[in-house]
Amino acid sequence: MCILCNFQVSFVVNTNMTMGATKDVVKYVMLVSCGSFNPPTFMHLRMFELAKNYLQANTNCYAFAGMMSPVNCLYKKKDLISGEHRLAMCRQATSSSDWIFVDPWECEQKQWSRTVVVLRHARELLKSVKENLETPATYTALLNICMKHKEKLMQGNNCQIMLLCGADFLESFSVPGLWASEDIEEIVKTFGLVVITRKNSDPFRFVHESDILYRYRKNIHLITEWIPNEISSTAIRRALKRNESVQYLIPEGCVGHQPDWIDEFIDKNFNLRKSAFDEVMAIGRSCSLRSALIIESTENSLSRRNMPQLKHKFNISDGNQAVYICEFKDSLSFNRFLDQVSQKFASNVFPMKSRIIKCSRGVSEMDVHTFPRLACEFEKIDFNHLYSLLGNASTANQQIDILFQHTKIHKEGMRLRFFLTTLIEDAVRRCFPFAICRPFGSTVNGFAQKNCDLDVNIQLYTESIDKLSADQYYFCSRYKPKSERTYIQNTLSILADVLGNFMPSFTHVQKILHARVPIIKLYHQTLGIRCDVTLDNKSAYKTAKVFWLFGKMNAHFKPLLFVVRYWAKQIGLTRPHPGPYITNFHIICLVTFFLQSRTPPLLPSIDKLLKNDFQMNEWIKDHVYSKTKTVELLVEFFNFYSKNVNCEICELNLRTATVKSKPSSSLLVIWNPFEEGHNICKNLNEEEFQRFLLAIKEAANIAESMKYKKDIDDPNWGLLSLLLPSNYTFVIVFYSFLMERGSCKEHTNDVEDQKIKISYPKGTCSPYCQSFTIEKEDHTLGVVLRFIISKYPEVRFCSYNVPHPMEDRIMLHIETDQSVLAVDVLKRGLKQASFIFETLKTKVEEAVSKYKN
């Protein structure tokens, strides 16, 4: 106790002695600190206090204000998060200070600003505030600070701006090409420097050896930090990536202002680099692994007060129940929460722990193990509203943007899919503790639409595991089958049984093990997401990464792709089920190759992209032209494949971005970028290939005459004319119901003879909401079809009517939940009705035969 008292007395005496040396104030100084603040640390704040104490004790200056100016995103520093989040963190860090404020000016500029420019801005800002002290119009942070020193600040020109920095910042003056000598001279001559020493730095020697700095050494204040603080933003970011706690290292509340990883994933201003995709994928997986889906019985029963370690709480409620994805700050706090979750296992349930949790008091066993079916609004597309917006747009280019914005996946939809991926990983890790599950395909390559399927790849281990013990103990394991395919098929089969039989909410598990790439299909009942799972699919992740980078490199890529893909879906080129058809992956490759091959190219070849010395930002500056409009690229796309490239005799190679004559007998050849010798269009049949060629030619003709601006007299102007199925000589494969054969038969010839006609209800052009006319069939068929189709879970509404009682014609209207096309529902209904009629016919014949006998 005596030692502590002596220490306190000694400290107070030394402080008073120092403060006693303070000179009369002549200059009022505003300290300006420029940096990334990614995130702000206690050292950033400590620098202001050190500078203030030093100036007051050793000079005739008084630091009355401190300004933090986060650098612009276009500075392109590694791992730099968005300015919005850094501003929020800085404001949170300075919230307890009465003299340090955050200025957003530098962050809000359209280009990166040099430090001297920021200092000039600070000078003008302070001048403007001083002029308005008598009659302030609006109260800003700086104005509030200045009002405390109003009398002193009004006494003539007694204010000065000084740059506050660390010794490492000062030493960067010597880096060749980084600083202009005139900027350095203006900073030290006009403004002045306050430098805080850091470990292993010698700013005194550096000033002595620099001619410019030595010339103006009287304007440079070097402050020794006797209580070293080596906290760095880089170390903080590393800890956050590793899911480690940073509490007590940065100001309270700054962790909560760390950007949502989904925002970083889709941010247009993302600091583009080749490792960015891997980094965001790793962060997304880490955040999802420490998240839980919590279903509440009462609104707002879950709060940060009850769960202080909650980092984010995302509302995915659908109106029927309160449902949240809760993300915790770190794994430790998440595991503590899981330890508090009660168990209500009984003899009739499998005792499995899941991250789908119910929050309720006095809940029964049945309530606990009954899962809701979410119908999230952000997963739905309102096609009536979409087509209304398209019709009311001003230009065709605006229509493309509307289509893109209204059909692309919502960020909460992405969050659900990453979360579902980790739920699958939870199940797999019960058997294989080193396994990692990663989403691939449209979910992560940037091309995902609302209500899209999820593709997941399982890796049982990512690298050889050679952990050695001191006594050389080893785990005994079993060798895999020699056949890679057999190993994949057997493992997927077992995992399908585990997911389908033991894990809650996984249903409709199908094993498709004899495909070229074996998969298991499943459906998550609560999240309402369909999922395809593969094992050790080595090319899937690489492909997703390349397309994601392409989407970041060119702003036109994704909107153009969305339009072409939607066009192919509207006219029936692509189907929701596998078959010998054009697929979405084919469309992605076709659009990519077009952007690689046009003059000038808007995307590089994949080989060029993957070179170690390839600089993406430099390539973008040289090749991307902001004046190019997406609608112009759309017209160019159809002309490219209808006139410039003959797909009947050429093969397309995305690796080299070249066209060659195809030696193989395949109809359409597009080489898989990461599977040598594999043609992704191998399954395409002759009929679908010819349909594709015809569709491209007709679309090119329509696009050439497409109106780029709104035409009041033409309701189908612009993009609508391209998407209208009636503008094409074919639409979708038509089916006729032949009762005498008891089967459905495809009719693709002679449109006039087709028995089923497709029409769209007024005000819509959606493939999920269609009316069908069935010619030359008995009215009984309408009753049977309505009865069958109405029972399908994906059908929202089904009705039928008879246009005229004396005509054998039926009108059937089908509206689905957008998970399946209306025409596919009709196909299934016709086949089922065919079977019913055939069975009925057989029973009638048997009954008649018995009666006759």
Automatic annotation (TrEMBL):
Q: Which GO terms describe its molecular function?
A: ATP binding; DNA-directed RNA polymerase activity; nicotinamide-nucleotide adenylyltransferase activity; nicotinate-nucleotide adenylyltransferase activity; protein dimerization activity
On whether Mitochondrion is a keyword of this UniProt record, the answer is yes
Parts forming coiled coils: none
The record describes its quaternary structure and partners as: Homotetramer.
Query: Which residue intervals define the domain Cytidyltransferase-like in the entry?
Result: 34-238
Task: Tell me its EC number(s), please.
Answer: 2.7.7.1, 2.7.7.18
- Tell me the ranges covered by the DNA-directed RNA polymerase RBP11-like dimerisation domain, including all copies: 771-842
> Taking every annotated instance into account, which residue ranges of this chain make up the domain Poly(A) RNA polymerase mitochondrial-like central palm?
397-547
- Can you name this protein? Nicotinamide/nicotinic acid mononucleotide adenylyltransferase 3
Q: Where in the cell is it found?
A: Mitochondrion
Q: In which pathway does it act?
A: Cofactor biosynthesis; NAD(+) biosynthesis; deamido-NAD(+) from nicotinate D-ribonucleotide: step 1/1; Cofactor biosynthesis; NAD(+) biosynthesis; NAD(+) from nicotinamide D-ribonucleotide: step 1/1
Q: Which UniProt keywords apply?
A: ATP-binding, DNA-directed RNA polymerase, Mitochondrion, NAD, Nucleotide-binding, Nucleotidyltransferase, Pyridine nucleotide biosynthesis, Transcription, Transferase
Q: Which family does it belong to?
A: Belongs to the eukaryotic NMN adenylyltransferase family.
Q: Which HAMAP family match?
A: RNApol_arch_Rpo11
Q: State the InterPro entries in the record.
A: Cyt_trans-like, Euk_NMN_adenylyltrnsfrase, MTPAP-like_central, NadD/NMNAT, NMNAT_euk, NT_sf, RBP11-like, RBP11-like_dimer
Read off the Gene3D superfamilies from this record: 1.10.1410.10, Beta Polymerase, domain 2, HUPs, RNA polymerase, RBP11-like subunit
Species of the source: Trichinella pseudospiralis
What is the top EC class of this enzyme, as a single word?
A: transferase
Q: One GO CC term of this entry?
A: mitochondrial matrix
What Pfam family is a match for this entry? MTPAP-like_central
Q: Which cofactor does it need?
A: Mg(2+)
